[in-house]
Amino acid sequence: MILAIVGTGFVVGFLVGLTGMGGGLLMTPLLILLYGFSPTMAVGTDLIYAATTKAFGSYQHFRQKTVDWGIVKKLAQGSIPGGIAGVLMIRLLDRTTSLPVEEVLGHILGITFIFVSLFMLSQLLKRHGQRPAKPAWKVPIRLVGLLGGLLVGLTSVGSGTLFMVVLLSSTSLSAALLVGTDVVHAFFLTLSAGVLHASMGHVDWSFVSWLLVGSIPGILLGGRLTLRVPELLLRLAIILVLLFTGIKMV
């Protein structure tokens, strides 16, 4: 069992190292499908796992000065309150309604996975083989942060990928600044939402530790092989896992 957990961490870390995406998108459905986690435990465990891994990446980008702190600040001003609100919404539903919260959250996760997988597919089809276009539209960054944070607090999905899509669409940051800004913001968001989930008992700490044993070398190896593996195939694999999991959970 421990070897399987370490292996899961390695695979997810490897994919993140290769593509820069997919950590939260893959870990939550894998925890539910492979290990029988309840939705709330999967979300909380994934957020703490994500915050820990992103701490290492954030430190590296801080040293490299590849972070746009102005954008991080604006996103965090919306996303951290949004993430906290998402976690509290789960607690409120659990305490004040007779709704089966785990079942409701499972449906929310399923719908989210399907939506994100289809959105990622559309972006992939539009951009594959093309040079990035200049931003065609501007977005209210704090509002995007608020809505994205709410989704992350509820589902743990989107701390990196969804905000990356927004940054790609609305800014002209260099590739290095784009990744660094996204990673650092995701660290603050997942940490704040994860700590709140942990205070409610929604984190399997032993599981997190074994995942990290596999994910850290996985990230390092994936980063070295980035230029050798077709990115299109990897992103399609992530999309298929999300879509399959979402359909199963709805």
From TrEMBL:
Keywords: Cell membrane, Membrane, Transmembrane, Transmembrane helix. It is found in: Cell membrane; Membrane. GO terms for cellular component: plasma membrane. Pfam families: TauE. The chain crosses the membrane at residues 12-37, 104-122, 143-167, 173-195, 207-226, 232-249. It is a multi-pass membrane protein. Belongs to the 4-toluene sulfonate uptake permease (TSUP) (TC 2.A.102) family. PANTHER family: MEMBRANE TRANSPORTER PROTEIN MJ0441-RELATED (PTHR43701), MEMBRANE TRANSPORTER PROTEIN YJNA-RELATED (PTHR43701:SF2). This is Probable membrane transporter protein. It comes from Paenactinomyces guangxiensis. The lineage of its organism: Bacteria, Bacillati, Bacillota, Bacilli, Bacillales.
